[in-house]
Amino acid sequence: MDHEDPPEGAGRPTAPTNRVEAAIAAVLFVLGAVVVVESRRLGAGWTSDGPGAGYFPFYIGLIISISSAVILVQALVGKARNTDDFIDTVQLRRVLSVLLPAAVYVLAVRFLGLYIASAIYIALFMVVLGRYPWVRSLLAGLVVNALLYGMFELWFKVPLYKGTLDPLRFLIR
pLDDT at residue 83 above 70? Predict the structure, then answer.
């Protein structure tokens, strides 16, 4: 692995690519193994009516486990393993600046519903990452979600999740 100075504007390296690949492969292997075990518990065999409840999940889990095991071995001992830096701290901060607000948004949807949470998410994203003015950002968030509300609730007659707090209950006819 090269230990030369990072390019201008780059942060400290975090981990080699092959270690990240190995960690993800290990997690996927465990996930596949859980699917295999639970599928066998449900009945992964062939019954008089056809395949049992766990028949197809069993083979999907088996494919995931085998593929993950191969990737794990290649990442750790393969000749072509990639030992370059996976990501540096500057890149990681950029990824987290999108990932963490998205996780908070998913949590906010639970309580505020899709429309309110999405309006806030759009507005905050525009202000924080896009550096747009507050007024323009709030207006964009509200207009986009008002259009979505009109399209889904009024036009298609498909109600979307309003949240446990249901802050839009005054709009229901």
Answer: yes
pLDDT in tens, 4-22: 555 665 678 888 999 999 9
Residue pair 71/20 in contact by the 8 Å Cβ criterion: no
Examine the fold and report which residue of 83, 99, 115 is the final residue of a domain before the chain moves on.
83
Per-residue pLDDT reduced to its tens digit, 26-60: 999 999 999 999 999 999 888 888 898 999 999 99
Q: Domain residues for 110?
A: 89-171
Q: Nearest-CA neighbor of 135 among 143, 148, 118, 123?
A: 123
Distance CA 86, CA 35 (A): 29
